[in-house]
Amino acid sequence: xxxxxILSTVTFIYGIAGFLYIFAWVFRKPAAGRLGxxxxxxxxxxxxxxxxxxWVESYQxxxxxxxxxxxxxxxxxxAFCITLVYLAVERRTANRTIGAFSMPLAFLAMxxxxxxxxxxxxxxxxxxxxxxxxxxxxxxxxxxxxxxxxVAFGVSLMYLFKRQEPxxxxxxxxxxxTLDELTHQLVVFGFLFLSAGIITGAVWxxxxxxxxxxxxxxxxxxxxxxxxxxxxxxxxxxxxxRGRRIAYLSVLGxxxxxxxxxxxxxxxxxxxxxxxxx
Amino acid sequence: xxxxxxxxxxxxxxxxxxASIQLTIVLLLSLAATxxxxxxxxxxxxxxxxxxxxxxxxxxxFWVLGLFDMYHSWWFQVLMVMLAANVIICSAERISAQRRIxxxxxxxxxxxxxxxxxxxxxxxxxxxxxALQSIYAPVFARTxxxxxxxxxxxxxxxFGETGRxxxxxxYAVHVSVVLLLIGGLIGSLFGFDGFVNxxxxxxxxxxxxxxxxxxxxxxFAIRCNDFSVSFYETxxxxxxxxxxxxxxNGREVLQKDIIVNDPLRYRGxxxxxxxxxxxxxxxxxxxxxxxxxxxxxxREVRIxxxxxxxxxxxxxVLRELRPNAMFRGRSVGDAFVGVLAPPEGDPEEIILPVRFxxxxxxxxxxxxxxxDEFKERFYTGLQVNRDxxxxxxxxxxxxxxxxxxxxxxxxxxQLCVEAVSRSAKTRVSVSxxxxxxxxxxxxxxxxxxxxxxxxxxx
Lengths: 278, 458
Description:
The complex is a heterodimer of chains A (278) and B (458). With 278 residues, chain A is mainly α. Chain A is built from eight helices and no strands. In chain A, helix 3 (71-93) runs antiparallel to helix 4 and helix 4 packs across helix 5. Chain B has helices at 9-18, 21-40, 47-54, 56-64, 74-97, 99-102, 111-115, 129-143, 169-190, 390-409, 438-454, and strands at 120-125, 145-151, 155-162, 192-199, 203-209, 215-231, 237-248, 251-259, 264-266, 269-290, 296-302, 306-309, 314-327, 330-341, 348-353, 367-386, 413-422, 425-434. The chains are: A mainly alpha (278), B alpha+beta (458). At the A-B interface, helix 6 and helix 7 of A face helix 2, strand 7, strand 10, strand 16 and helix 10 of B.
């Protein structure tokens, strides 16, 4: 498949972009950072092209469907969302150190999809449970939310790093107040999309399985994630919880995201089509 | 809403506790932490399975804590009710504290608040303040509400605000959380959740409820006219389709094919395609080969009905279809079991494995019996439920999304224009405050300032 080839290439492009951002940050070479932005944009374009081509290829195979139905496809889409959210943040903050903490995540998502022997990149037709108009709305909202949380996680790490060692390479990072505010904005954005993702999932579940909520592990873990980020948003209203604790909650929230995404497949439940082999 | 005036210490303390955001954070994190348990311990399984997995002692301990159905355990429900109470009381307190901003017809603007704000735009206008006032007023009113004008010694102050309603966004989210809980409660009190398997051609009126296992009679009967399953070339399932008819007093009132993701809804009850399986039919076509003449007789045989064989070979009764039948200690798969009674001698049990048509030849009897045709019938597995709370929950969903959007991305802005006469010109400055989203405020100030600059006499 051409799309798989393009997407494998994008993995390396994202890797190079991540490397350039880290290089620019550690060795204080702004030119490398600017190059990183260009490379990231190229990767984003390739990622989008691979995604669309995969969609087209599914039609050529005779069962056209959006490429959002298994682990491989969701990882591809996730990497796309992370890069998109990061580039938007870069545009707003005009600071490329965040790239050193965000682009590696996009690279890892892509690398996991392309290189893991457990993940098949074959284009399979949809099983009956996934044949629904809610599929696209549910997956897109969830992953846009997850992507915002991923970048928020990167920014929170920067915050914690800068609070710990303000004199070091952290000097080029935005001020801690900006990092704190950025974490909050990203979490706010992610929270809206996570809520929408859970809600579209619930409405879909109600039309497919006859109940909008069944405490299936995936559902429960998405709710756990929601609880953590809801706690974060409320914590900001309380004086003693600002700053460091917010950053810790953001890291905790992202671990919950990762478990919702990957860990739940180890538990029994209805979302098993997300599992490795499919 | 304020705390009850005649309250004693405890009520007061409880009210204070539930009015605190710290409690919200603690409750949210507790719900997150405890919810993990139910994803690690499989829920609602058989006690025997738990005992073999955790041992007797741990099983008892978990049982007491309700961990095998923990999302319905009393302590989890208490946490959720506490969250609801917290959300309601917190919101009431905050609305009460902000009522002078939220609920007044004419908000009070204080000039002092606006004079030293960092967000401002200023320009000079050639016209005197008195003329500007009447020109600015309609421009101001175009985007702002509650416009007020105050005269000063050297000119005037003009105030206005926009987006006050956005302060209610957060309460919409809080109300939505309460709606979700109420909707869930309505569903569990007045709804039901059951399942039923129906063989093709059969009609049922009763379903089995999940959990309790009780039977429930539906206000109509469901007939499964047909079930089909189709596969992709890869072997993966493509579609499960049940053709259903609903009957009231024996009369068909509705007919619909349902597939996964496209259920049937009738009189508040929803019917979903959830599983399928096959059941052996009660009939088989058997062939009887007479060893004496070589003639083959095909007979349709029903389980339990005796047939008389030609050529005076005796009688035959099909007793049952035995799954995984054994023959001399060996499994021969699914097999029909019948009894052949020859005219002379003792009746004999005959085993007819479905998979091995020539099996009966080994017996070397006067008649060789084989299974010629044997139809399996599908049954469709349906999920049948009623949830009158679902619309409350959906209202909560919509309210939550709108509330989140309004809370996070919109703001309440108050603007002030001050015109001060300075020699032949008038110095005009526009400033403003917002409860959040500073960039949007800066844009608004620029926009208003621009509009005022370009305004001309009416």
